[in-house]
Amino acid sequence: MTWLKDVVGTEKAIIAMCHLLPLPGDPYFNKEKGMEYVVEMARKDLQALQEGGVDAVMFSNEFSMPYLTDVKTETVAAMARIIGELMSEINVPFGVNVLWDAQKSLDLAAATGAKFVREIFTGVYASDFGTWNTNVGETIRHQYRIGAENVKLLFNIVPEAAKYLADRDLESIAKSTVFNNRPDALCVSGLTAGAQTDKNLLRKVKNQATETVVFANTGVTMNNFEEQLSIADGAVVGTAFKYDGKFENHVDPKRVKEFMDKVKAFRNENCFDELNG
């Protein structure tokens, strides 16, 4: 049994993304509609995801584009307000992802009671956002300083729109990341949100991290979830749950229910127990 059973309620878990609209300080924030509109759209997507039967939800500032690697205070404050207003309506385990700032993600988790965070914790990258560095030792020390040591850490080892500066294969990255950092999970991604995770890369990572949870982090759909979940321990799903399967759209409750009904049938057929039904 992995920690997924205790924290999320099932093996082969589906963590659904609740993508927040642009926030104050973001270039595309809608000042006329304001934060009230952002909260209401988040509420609408959250309800659609939960009614469709997802196992967990992860809130992220997905539309704070272009992303920062040193996120501003106003972004974290806005995300905390949204989650705070929705707290009484959240009935599944939830996590947070402040793109792309690991310490701010932990700050938000500590403030809201999130069970997990997903971030880029390790490595140095050439990215669309410039040279992207990390400091995992300081980040983990920060986690303990703020009392967030029980928050599960999902390490994204294939960051979107970025490439390791060192010439390292994914297998060695997975192996050394597990040895040096003891992550709760490794996330394997495609190039961008919605891009399918390469099953061969996914398998290579799982072969190196046999005792660590591995997630297919992008591009899991109704057409490929069985293939992906036959390798991975779970999946993070965002785009596939949206109207017409488009990243920029809101969540389509019918797509969510159809997807989750099939996933639950797959789990039942393969004897993966669920605590939440």
From TrEMBL:
Superkingdom, taxonomy of origin: Bacteria
Alphabetical list of InterPro entries matching this protein: BtpA, RibuloseP-bd_barrel
Species: Metabacillus rhizolycopersici
SUPFAM superfamilies linked to this entry: Ribulose-phoshate binding barrel
PANTHER family: SGC REGION PROTEIN SGCQ-RELATED, ZGC:162297
Name the record gives this protein: BtpA/SgcQ family protein
Pfam families tied to this protein: BtpA
Family: Belongs to the BtpA family.
Extent of the signal sequence: none
